[in-house]
Amino acid sequence: xxxxxxxxxxxxxxxxxxxxxxxxxxxxxxxxxxxxxxxxxxxxxxxxxxxxxxxxxxxxxxxxxxxxxxxxxxxxxxxxxxxxxxxxxxxxxxxxxxxxxxxxxxxxxxxxxxxxxxxxxxxxxxxxxxxxxxxxxxxxxxxxxxxxxxxxxxxxxxxxxxxxxxxxxxxxxxxxxxxxxxxxxxxxxxxxxxxxxxxxxxxxxxxxxxxxxxxxxxxxxxxxxxxxxxxxxxxxxxxxxxxxxxxxxxxxxxxxxxxxxxxxxxxxxxxxxxxxxxxxxxxxxxxxxxxxxxxxxxxxxxxxxxxxxxxxxxxxxxxxxxxxxxxxxxxxxxxxxxxxxxxxxxxxxxxxxxxxxxxxxxxxxxxxxxxxxxxxxxxxxxxxxxxxxxxxxxxxxxxxxxxxxxxxxxxxxxxxxxxxxxxxxxxxxxxxxxxxxxxxxxxxxxxxxxxxxxxxxxxx
Length: 460
Description:
6-stranded mixed sheet, 21 strands, globular, single chain
């Protein structure tokens, strides 16, 4: 998929000759117009009441369930998501809308006693107006949904600017949502940087997921306007494997989080830190597990590692492993589509890009550590801090020994990938900017708190 000044073209990553969509880019003025139409529609959406908003979000969930097979097939075709993962994403998307369908009935404030004298003090949360959402291609239904559903539940209108690579998925999702909400309340704005910049310049609250460079620019632009902003910008996630871990289970989890969806997740594992005696058995077990990962057509239910999103992405992965010692993988396919084998490398030089940049592909570096403290230092040595997985049989280590990790999420004896949408999601350092996403945290982000003082006139 590419976006130029005039045309957006979407291609199937498994078969680049398959053109899914080709439309003109709407431009900056269209973005501003979409925001203004949303701003005009928002008061009616809010004043329609909690029951109407709840019913609308519930209807979206039902419609997604009804169209599940079609949506999964579209994700397979447009973004190369393996069929089993695509089905799981669609199911999670429906669950997200169903979860937030209850949110309009939640309390939006509290009543307090005054410090002195008669009267009341009230705090109340109110929507900002128009939420501008900028989303990536790798979760084309779930990420727009976990941003849009809480924004709508709180009474905002939404303008969604999806990644160009996921335009068809976003348009189909919009068709479903627009059947349930009033005109203007939810709009999809196709395009690239021009449209995204215009949206950030006009929206009342901004949520972004994507690359670090773009996310930091979005955060600066929104902050300069005094607009609330959150930005999720990826990770360089580590898995710490201690000697007492179940090595076979750890290898299975790590292979899934390295190679699943060709490593194209911000929560994917890209550094494997083997502590002490865990190194030798893990080296063999993980290399074998990665070689066994089913690679191929994402339309096949058995496929775990499908194609990279485009030719540039595959080139980036190949450049990252070039010249390194590969324990598994390190090859690309000569068949149509942008495929790369799940890869594990070792003896990576200090300062290598794999140890400082997010490559976003099915590749990980195996690193030795002398002990847990050393493993924590290695984990924290990168600019990112999204998620760390820790594999150990020692509950004390899991609960007490990991407080020094500079990551927003820690997963014990589980893959680094995986999101619980009813809990806060986000990282530390360059991984995240602003408040957390998902769960109740999202409802707070899309609303502002106001304090009301009610005094009794003429009280003595």
